[in-house]
Amino acid sequence: MAFIIGPFLFLAALIAMEGVAYAAHRWIMHGPGWFLHASHHRPRTGRFEANDLYAVIFAVPSFILILGGVQLGWGAGYAWAGAGIAAYGAIYFGFHDVIVHRRIAHSYVPRSRYMKRIVQAHRLHHAVETKAGTVSFGFLVAPRADALKAALARNARAGVRSPRKGADISGSSR
After folding, report:
1. Which is nearest to 41 in space by CA: 32, 51, 33?
2. Which member of 23, 97, 134, 171 has the greatest number of CB atoms within 10 A?
3. Where are the alpha helices (DSSP H) in 93-127?
4. What's the pLDDT score for residue 167?
5. Residue 61, Cβ density class (10 Å: 0-12 exposed, 13-18 middle, ≥19 buried)
6. What whole-number distance in Å separates Cα of residue 63 and Cα of residue 48?
7. Of 109, 155, 144, 152, which Cα lies nearest the Cα of 127?
């Protein structure tokens, strides 16, 4: 395999995963897969939630591609693509579980416009506690907060949770 093709497949898979994650989040997790994802829209009562099973489910294609490319003779391109999927999963874990939901204690405070936008978009997503009426399904690419707030208003605020003491719809105190 040409030297450039492997890294290209890695980056292509990593970038494509944002679209796959958007589609899976919008039409599977907020559709027939809500029975698992609903736990993520409620306060967590323990270390894990049913929604964590999606990490295992989404790791399977990556594992199969890497295994096929490295051990089963499918070709290195499959391993590179599988590694790109795994890299997206690692980035997602870092942003989503660590930075946004603070499932691992840290003192990082988002300061860049990009990081603030990603965090705010995800918090606006969590302003809705039902599978209907939700906004912002992607993760590494997020609409502006004013566009998301307008979408919530157009949805007649369907499923929007009651504000907690000291919180606003932007979720800035969460």
Report:
1. 51
2. 134
3. 113-125
4. 44
5. middle
6. 22
7. 152
Cα diameter, the chain: 58
CA distance 159 to 132: 7
Q: In whole angstroms, how far apart are CA 137 and each of 75, 84, 92, 133?
A: 33, 20, 13, 11
Token pair recorded at residue 14 = 């990593």
Q: d(Cα 173, Cα 170) in Å, to the nearest integer?
A: 8
Q: What is the pTM of this model?
A: 0.84
Tokens of residue 127, six digits: 């302003």
146's enclosing H/E stretch is helix 145-154
State yes or no: pLDDT of 143 exceeds 80: yes
Residue type, 113: R
Where b means 16+ CB within 10 Å and e means fewer, 133-168 reads: bbbbbbbbebeebeebbeebeeeeeebbeeeeeeee
